[in-house]
Structure formats: C-alpha cells, structure tokens
C-alpha cells in the first residue's frame, strides 16, 4: 500500500520541533508559515487572498513556501517547518492511521473536485469513455490522489484500467508527465492545468473530458494544521480561514480576466490568456470551493475512492479529522 513514509515523517517531526516555532512581528502582525503542495492555478483563491491583501486585513503575515509533493509537505508540517499546509485531505488519513500523537486536522477546504483533465493526442468527435479501450493511457503516479481519482472515474465509466487498456503507465514522475506525452508517449494522458490548456494552444493534445466533473465533490485540497497548533492558535486559524473565505467569494464574483490578473505574478511562465482560460474552466466546473467548510458527504466519498484504489489504511470518521467549528463560525458572521 502506498502511504506517506510516515515513520520518517514522525521522527522528523520530533526533531523539527526543537528548531521551528510560530512567531509574531513587533507590530502585532501574526506570522503564519504556509506550505503548499505545488504551485497551481487550481489554487487561485489562495493567491487572491495574498495579492488582494485579505490576509493582511486579518493582521496576518503569510509566508508561502512551495514544498512540491504530499510527502514533503506533510513532513514540513509535522516537523514544525510550517504552521499550515495546503495538501490533499488523504494525507491526514495516512498520518492518523500511523497513530500520530499530534494528527493533522483539516479546517478549511480550497478545492472540491479533482483538478485533472483527460487529454487525447488526436481530436475525437463525440467522445465516449469506451474510446480508451485498447489504448495506451499515461496516468498519474501510482498511490497519489490524481491516480486514485483517475482509476475511480475509469471504473465508473465501465473501464477496467488494468484489463481494458493496452497499457497503463504510472511510473513517470509528476513533473515529467507533460513532456513524456509531448514526446510521443501515450494515446491519452491525465493532466493538470495549465498544461492541458497549453497543449491545446500548442496543438499537442485536445481536452476531451474532466476528471473533476466525473468524480464528484471531494476534499481534494485543504488547509490543515497539527491539532496542537489549532488548540494553541485558534484565533489565528479563524483569521486565516476568514481571509480564505473572502478570497473564495471574490473569485466567484469577479470576471475571469480580473482573477487572472490578480494571480499572474505567481505564474510568470504562463500567459495571461492561458491563466484566464484555466480560471474560467476550473470555476465553471465547480472546482473552487465556495466556502471553507469541508462537507461530510465529500469526506466519505474521498475514503470510498481511496478504498477502491486499495490505499485506505482505515476508515476515519468525519468528526475525528475535520474541524467544522471554525469554518462554520466564519460563514455565520
């Protein structure tokens, strides 16, 4: 079973506690160290909260670090190298299943669908999922959330990924998947944005369906903190959540081009036009959560998907790892 290398993570967390601590500046602005699992337009509301000053309005100085991968992100959080992590909710389940003394608690949701798209090498009119049968499919890394959702969606559409495909490729690192497809590997590929839209722009592929719309609502990317941090810094977490909710509302209300301009500095290698297209696509399919509250039904769908993939170590109750008090309080203000 693919689970985060938690023995190492928990050991690092014990050592790291001696070296890191949250702090406040002299002007009473509270510093929050935020680790994001990757840099993605999928997280647009987060960058809006930063660029539009919503964190500052709450008296927070948020230091953003990209930690590139779920394992690294959770190691950073558990070792006190970050106060808050933006990462897939499944990682909190992996940590809890290893009987962590200070588990990671999910307190605010940012994205509520899978963020990948099905891209074909050739244009396909009237696409049906049966078109994948007998093809070479370039999927995401085995054991990760994109791969679990990808296989779940294939099965929901009558495709056995290990029987109906000529070849299922899952051994290519996340960062190398787009270049592998561009160089000729695979008939179909599962891609995040902006690569999917950029491939269409460059004539390298064609977006034919969305894993996000196919999979339903799940807590795909959430903010979490160690239980001890939540207990000791409840007011700070409330302020953080309030800033995120302001950004969530702003992203829903503003035109896509305005949102694109607001986050463009975080994506210097992507054209403003592509950013705008990606924002509009994610928003139209409901990928951006409109509130920070992680829904109970979505929590159990996540575990159903993990179980289907053989990656669920144990079922964890909603109440155990999801804090609803903070987002509910913010939403009712």
TrEMBL record:
Pfam families: NMT1
Subcellular location: Periplasm
Recorded family membership: Belongs to the bacterial solute-binding protein SsuA/TauA family.
Keywords assigned: Signal
Protein name as annotated: ABC transporter substrate-binding protein
Xref: PANTHER family: ALIPHATIC SULFONATES-BINDING PROTEIN-RELATED (PTHR30024), TAURINE-BINDING PERIPLASMIC PROTEIN (PTHR30024:SF47)
Limits of the SsuA/THI5-like domain: 44-256
Originating organism: Evansella alkalicola
Major place of residence: periplasm
Annotated signal sequence range: 1-22
Protein's UniProt keywords contain Ubl conjugation: no
InterPro entries on file: SsuA/THI5
Domain of life: Bacteria
